[in-house]
Amino acid sequence: MNKSFGLGIVIALAACSANAAQIVGGTPSFTAVRAQIETAGCPIELDPSCLVQATLGGSLQEAGSEPRAYSQVRAGFGVNGAYASVNQAQDREAYAESIWSDAFVVHGGSGQATAQITVRLEGTLDGLGQPGGPGSNSFYTLFVSDKPISCDFDELDCTGNAAIPLTESLSGVQYLSASIEFTYDKPFYLASYLGAEVVGGQTGVADFFHSAHFGISAPIDATLTTDSGTRYQAASSVPEPQSVVMFAMGMLVAWRTGSKRARHP
User: Fold this and answer.
1) C-alpha to C-alpha distance for 182 and 152, rounded to whole angstroms
2) Whole-angstrom Cα distance, residue 137 to residue 141?
3) Fewest CB within 10 angstroms: 54, 65, 86, 173, which?
């Protein structure tokens, strides 16, 4: 049974002000997203009016109806997507954050073993982005814990340990991997955190809306169950970079052949 919880259930607001700590999770499985537009150069932690628009939800949200800035974000079990853009500098900042978390249990063995994880990230940065600096940026982290995970949107952090450490300035296609030690028949928890932003009074685009795809493989002859009821793809089924290149070359050859046939029947 799918146990995805809406943000109305899993989000805890410490206060009603714009700079309240926004904590999500604490349940075995959940999805959570935030899309936010702020005034550039305005310290939101000191002045709540710096917040132009913020939308929170469980799976898909967008913010920024005006042309100056826009963000869109989605989350599903095994998939993250985040998009942020700013068209007028010195005016706006755009943020998009996506989180999903699930509980995993491996059956069919005894003692401890290892599960393999692969995350395929794909997207583009347009602008002068750099980690912690102005412009467009993107970031990803995978967390693991032996307890249900909660995440802090404001701190870009979740409880547990970073199975895949913070990776920033993503661009193009990247493959991140991790080995997770577990005990048979005992649950462990994973949280996948993806963000995109354009900040610092700069224009740019961080497009990772179709980005993070998660795969996990348990040992041979073992079975994997999840709290959400999701059947995740195997880590080995996530295409390797070389196979992606070969596929692209094959498509290019097919396109050229088709194009020649169209011009010379």
Assistant:
1) 25
2) 14
3) 65
Q: Please give the single-letter amino acid code of residue 82.
A: A
**Radius of gyration of the CA atoms of the chain, in A:** 20
Residue whose structure tokens are 């990776």: 167
Cα-based torsion angle of the residue sequence 232, 189, 6, 45 in order, rounded to the nearest 10 degrees: -130
Nearest to 94 by CA among 38, 153, 49: 38
User: Is the alpha carbon torsion for 14, 15, 21, 25 positive or negative?
Assistant: positive
The stretches of the chain forming alpha helices (DSSP H) are 7-10, 241-263
Task: Give 145-194 pLDDT, tens digit per residue.
Answer: 999 999 999 888 999 999 999 998 888 899 999 999 999 999 999 999 99
**Interatomic CA distance for residues 221 and 242, integer angstroms:** 28
Q: How far apart are CA 205 and CA 192, in angstroms?
A: 22
The pTM is what?
0.81
For residue 57, which of 84, 38, 83, 36 has the smallest C-alpha distance? 36
Which two structure tokens, joined as six digits, stand for 71? 């963000």
* pLDDT tens, residue by residue, 74-118: 999 999 999 999 987 668 999 999 999 999 999 999 999 999 999
Burial class (CB in 10 A: 0-12, 13-18, 19+), 73: buried
Question: CA 99: distance to chain centroid?
Answer: 6
What φ, ψ does residue 131 adopt, rounded to 5°?
-55, 125
